[in-house]
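Late entry, evening session. Most of the bench is empty. Finally got around to the prediction I had been postponing all week. Sequence below, unchanged from the version circulated by S.P.
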Amino acid sequence: MPSYIPPTDAGFRDWIENFLTYAAAHAAELGLAADQIAEMQAAKTAFVNSYTAYMAAQAGAHNATENKEEKRADAVKTMRRYVNILQVSPAVSDPERQSLRIPVRDKQPTPTDPTAILRVIPPKLHLGTAQPGGVVVHFGPEPTDERRNAKPAGVAGARILVHDGAVPSGTPNLASLSWRWIGDDTESPFYFTATGGGIFTFRVQWFDVLMNLGPLGDPVTCAVTE
C-alpha cells in the first residue's frame, strides 16, 4: 500500500496543514483531545518553521553562487587586461612577471615544425551568455569543464574570430563570411563584450609558439542580450 505521507517537503507541508486544519475543526467528532491536537500542532509548526528556513537558505545560497560567479568573471576579465599590459611593458622584468605568477614569454622560441599545428584537433567551443552584453568563450578539448580543458601538446594559445550574425543555412564556404579577429588568448575562457547585444557566431583555431595557425574549429552561434 502506498504511503499516505507525500514524499516531498512541499507536499508534506500541504498535507499536514490540511490534516491539522480539519482535525482541529472536528476534534470532538474525531475523538481527539485538546492536548493531542496541541501536540500535533507543535510538530507541524516546528516542521513548517524549519522548512521555511531551509527554503530561504537555499534561495540565499543560489543567489550567493550567482553573485560569486558574476564577480569572478568580472575580476578575471579585469586581471587579464592588466596582465596583457604587463606582458608587453618594457618596465616589467621577467623576474617580476614570475613574482606576479603570470606567464613569461619565450624570447627565443623553441624551433617547431610549422606543420605540426595543422595536425592538432581544432578547439571545441562552449559559449556562456548568462551575463547581459557579453559572451564567455570557453575553448579547448573539454570546454564545458575548465578543470579538464588543458591545451594539447604543442599549442601556445587560441585565436578567436567572430561573425556578426548567424551562419546562413546551407552555407557551403564558411570562409566566404565576414569573420573578424577579436583576440588571441593563451588560456580559456576568453571574454567578449557585445555592446547592444545581438546574434554572434564564433570560430577558434590553435596557434603554436611561432604563431603558426591550425585549422579553424566548427562555428557556434549564440544570442546576447543587452
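Two things to note before I forget:
The chain is about 35% helix and 20% strand.
The longest helix spans residues 34-88.
Will write this up properly tomorrow.
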